[in-house]
Design goal:
Helix 1 crosses helix 5. This protein has a six-stranded parallel beta sheet with strand order 3-2-1-4-5-6, with helices on both faces. The longest helix is centred in the middle third of the chain and has 19 residues. The protein is an alpha/beta fold. Helix content is 46%, strand content 9%.
Length: 268
Amino acid sequence: MTQDRKNIELVVFDTAGTVCDGPRDLSARWPEDDGKGCKAPVVPFYELFKNHGIRCDWETIRRPMGTYKPTHLRMLLKTPSIETQWVENFGRTPNDEDFDELLDEFRALLTKYIVDEDLARPVEGAEEAFRRLREGGALIGLDTGYFAKDAGELNAILRERYDLKADVESNGEDAPGRPTPFMIYDCMQKAYEITHKTFSCKQVVKVDDTAAGILSGNNAGAWTIGVYASGSNDYDELAAANPDFLVPDIRYVPELIFTQISAKNEEA
């Protein structure tokens, strides 16, 4: 039976850690694996610093998760433990030339891992969640802190291999990334171009596994749902970003939208 979406027009999901690249034990491939989801950005950052003689644990790498990847790299380079090691190894703090070279190396590694078969696999329940939302009439959006080319390749795998098709997509190169609201606004504009419907931010739901993603939804004025068991940030880290709702993973999203969020919109 088709669910009534009532007044929810668009649901914007983060990609890695929310829709795909969920929690798995891949320590056979990466001994440092922490078992959490959203490994595709962590592995290239880890390998990048290791290649330059810098020790950086996965917990440190995850702290800026959700931000556009060049911003993520700059934040890591300013982390005291990394900066201290860089000075020890190279006699100075990282400069702009270092950053540009590191970013080029990181991009090559990310391009390799983002489409890795183990990491592009959907989170359990993603296909069902997309189907129920689409049957209810809501458009589905995907946003990400990945570069445009990499995001396009990952989204193509999700669409062609797993039938996880987004109606609209955005990334950190198309629009300023999280925690700003602009990737959500980008998805809203693209949704308008499809439907020619005018709708408010309260008819949009942002679903994300990172605090930065929840903040982007809050800043956009959308409803926000944090998924705390499938990606980078745990319950407490997501709760600190003040989402409207917290659920373990994507499987719980449709029912929450069809019932509680729609009901709250009707009461407003």
